[in-house]
Every structure is written in structure tokens, then in C-alpha cells.
Amino acid sequence: MAFSSHLLSSQTFFKAHNLGLPLRQRQSVLPPLPLTSATPSLKKLSSRQWRDVGFIARVEEKAKTSSPFSPDPDPGTEPPDYELLDESGNCDPLCSVDDVSSQYFEANYQPKTDLFKALVVFGLAFAGTAAINHSWVAANQNVAMVLVFVLGYAGIIFEESLAFNKSGVGLLMAVCLWVIRSIGAPSTEIAVTELTRANAEVSEIVYFLLGAMTIVEIVDAHQGFKLVTDNITTRNPRTLLWVIGFVTFFLSSVLDNLTSTIVMVSLLRKLVPPSEYRKLLGAVIVIAANAGGAWTPIGDVTTTMLWIHGQISTLNIMKGLFVPSVISLAVPLPLMSLTSEVNGSSQKSSSLLASEQMAPRGQLVFGVGLGALVFVPVFKALTGLPPYIGILLGLGVLWILTDAIHYGESGRQKLKVPQALSRIDTQGVLFFLGILLSVGSLEAAGVLRELANYLDQHIPNIELIASAIGVASAVIDNVPLVAATMGMYDLTSFPQDSEFWQLIAFCAGTGGSMLIIGSAAGVAFMGMEKIDFFWYLRKVSGFAFAGYAAGIITYLAAQNLHLPVLPDSVVAQIPFLSGS
User: Fold this and answer.
1) Sign of the CA dihedral with 420 first, then 423, 425, and 430 last
2) What residue ranges are annotated as transmembrane (predicted)?
3) With contact defined as beta carbons under 8 Å apart, do 323 and 561 qualify?
4) β partners of residue 85
5) For the whole model, what pTM was predicted?
6) What is the dihedral of CA 233, 239, 244, 245, to 10 degrees?
């Protein structure tokens, strides 16, 4: 008997699986594979036959180990692995039935392109290895570092086209830059000292982000944010536009703008059916999240960076940027409410928010988690310790609390901190680590100081510099922009809470709203709602720019005219924040 006659069609298995047959009937359509004398030698099996043998082995193992009490899949749905097969039931030569994501790989695989990318990677690695041993690097350290940074940053910008994750590119860039710095430094010991100092500064931000992200993830796992979203009951299109905007604005001031965007876009999916109106509401969320994160030290990663390194203090950044941030949202909202998407909407949908139930003690976890985030500036003011110590305090309290309230409940492990740690955006943290270490190497080599001197000579207006950085953040990630600015100008050039640092915080935070790829909030919205880049450019970018310009004008007017942006009576109620 020919070997191929013993190979069961994969479609037969999936057809049986979809029909929801009992376990015995499923096994009956999966006969064992006899290895008779007619069976060719295993050494002579083709790669296709090897895949078929492995496939049937996995099918038989699945049939044997399946529980008879487990529910059968819905007849109308295909099992995940079925998507990997074409109409004839054949698997692509490079796909794996164990990896559901191979479906996307199969549809987009281009061998020549991948071969070209591999050759480029190996070529660059070989060139880098050769350059390390060349005296040219030592003699031209700054040029070499700038070239590596430009190449690495190009890889980050075009990560979608190159199919390289920006976190990996950022880490490789950081390592290469510090290797070049070790070659060009007067001695290796000096380079190690500089790296140790840079690592200490970067670690404070990384620890803070890990703690804050874990706290937010724990609250979200308990459906704590339903306390906020369930109170949005209006269905009037214009009213909903304003409510969504300002709820996101204040939510982002306590959380980060990315988390606020995810929470609010998820809410939109339950309030509004797919339409142009829902897209516009999502754009409002992006603008509001970026504006709300700019006026508090914990609302955006860039303001957190400036706060941790002492460029801004809690009270003064809130006093200086609250009104400009409100204006940057309040100007686009009435303009967007006049659009055809809003006026032509007859949205009167009923509430669909009852699909998810809050976890047990969800209100308690929400209160403790929110309190832990808000308490960080207070902790810094009272103790003088860096903010990451305060966020670790809050995480520790929440960890013990969730262990206590879910003690003995094996089915609620996902509500505890260990599971939350597996769900946070670790690759995003590693991206920040790579970028900040890269910028630290440029600062140690004096490259950023030379750039700052050049800007001072050719653009003496600090307001124009800060505004240009905000516009650039619409195209380039604001984290490296702010990190580079911090390396270019120290506290001796511009003291804490100076106009320059507050403008940098505002412009880098709100400038990203002008393009959908300009901020983490925009990218999240783009992915969740499948928004086209050019749709956002046509429909939203003009409104976002109007808010950005209005916010800058408001800030400069308040500073030049010495207008108090917050009443002194309000400030006097929180005197312990004056030095934070």
C-alpha cells in the first residue's frame, strides 16, 4: 500500500471537529498510521510527508487527551488551525499548524524580501564588527555615534515596513552606541562610570513605569474603570462628544494617556455602532488623552521623565499647564461638533454596558489603585525620595490587598499581581530603556551639548524651539525627543519650572495629536478601530493643530501678562506639594 494512502486529509479531521462529534466518533475518523513493509524508510520521507506525519500525530494525541466533558466548538466556527489551510486542505510549506498566526504569515510571506532583509542585517552586523576594530571610530566618535543613532531611529520609524520590532532595534542601538563610546572615551573606566550614571537615571523611569502599569492593569482586571464609564448615560451626539472628551481628559491626568485611550475606546464600542461618528469620537479621545496627560507629572511618560529628573515640580506644572491643556481640548471640540459626522448622526443607541461584571471587591481595588497613583507626588513631597519609591509602595500595598481578598480562590488568579505582570506592555518598557540609554550615550559623548549650542546660535527663541519639538513629536516619538532635550539643556541653562521646561512638557505631550502616529494614544486608537492614516489627516489633524496653537498662545499670554492660571486659594490648600 502506498504511503500516501495512509495519510488522513486534514479537512476530514476539521469537518469532524466542526460537526461536534462525540469523542469516540472523532477517534474513529482518525485511524492510526500503520508502518508496513511497504512504508518507505523514514529517512526517505519528503519534508511534506514529515509534516503530514507530525500533523496526524498531533491530531491523534489531541483526540486521546480531549476531555469528554469539554464543550464541543460551535458548528458555525472554524477551529483556529483550520485558517492555516487552503481550500484543498494543504498546508503552506512554511506554515505550522501549531501557530495560528501563521495564517497572516502565509498571506504576506515574500521570500525575496525576507532574504534581502536578512542580508541587510548580516551586512550591517559584519560592517559594525569590522568598524569596532578600526581606528576610525576612535578618531571620529561623534560622527560614528550620530550615524548609528540615525540608522537605529530610521529602523524605529519604519518598523512596520521593515517588520522589525522597535524595542529590539532600540536595545541594539543602545548597545552599539555604548560600545562606540567605550572605544572613543579616554579610558574604558570613564565609559563604565558614564554608563553607570546613565543607567541609574534610566532605571528610575523604568521602575516607575513598571509599577504604574501593573497598578493600572490590576484595576482594569477587576473592571474598576466601569465606575467611570457606567456613569456616561447621554446619547445625544454633541453632548456625548463633550462628555467623552472631558472624561478622557481628567482620566488621563491620573492614568497614562495610552491606558485612558484603551479604556475609553472600549467604552465607545459599547455605546456607538461602527460609523464615521464613532471614528470622530475616537479622535476626540486621542486629543483629550494627550492634553490631559500634559498637565500632571504622572499623566504622560514625558512629563514623568521631566518630573523625575527635576526639570518640573508637581504643583508648578499643574499651575502652569492646566489652563493651556484645557484650551488645547476646548478649541477642537466645538469645531468638531460642527462637522457633518456629528450633525448627521442620529445616535440614540441604548446602553450596552452590562456585558461585563465588576470583579468581587472591584470598587475597593479601584479606590486603592487610584489612591496609590495620586499619592506618589505627596510621598515625594513628604519624604524627598524619588517617585519610583512611592509607586513601588503603592504596588506593594495593592499586591498584599489582592492576595488577601482573593485568598483561596484558585479561579481568580488573573486578578492577582503575578498574572498582571505577564500582561503589562513589557516590550514598551524595553523600548524606553533602549531609547533612554541611547540618548545617555550621546549626552556622555557631548553630542547633545554641541547640538544645543548650534540651536542657541541659530534659533535663540526658546519658545520656537519648544514649539518645533512639539511639531516634530507628531512624526517622531516624543520620548526620545524629550530625552534628547534633557541632555541638550541642563538645569544650569534652564532652572526647574522655567518657561522652557513647561513648554517642552506641553508641546511634546499635545503635539502628538496632530498625526495619528504621533502618540501612543493615537497608535492604540488606530489599531483598535482600524483607522486609516489619511482619514485622520483629513478629518482631525487641522482641529488638533488649532488646539495645539491655542494652548501655546494661552500659556505665553499667561506668562507674559503674569496671569494666575489657578487661584491662590486653591494652591494654598496643598502647600506640601510646593517642593515636589
Assistant:
1) positive
2) 115-132, 138-156, 240-268, 280-308, 320-338, 358-376, 388-408, 428-452, 464-488, 500-528, 540-558
3) no
4) 91
5) 0.62
6) -160
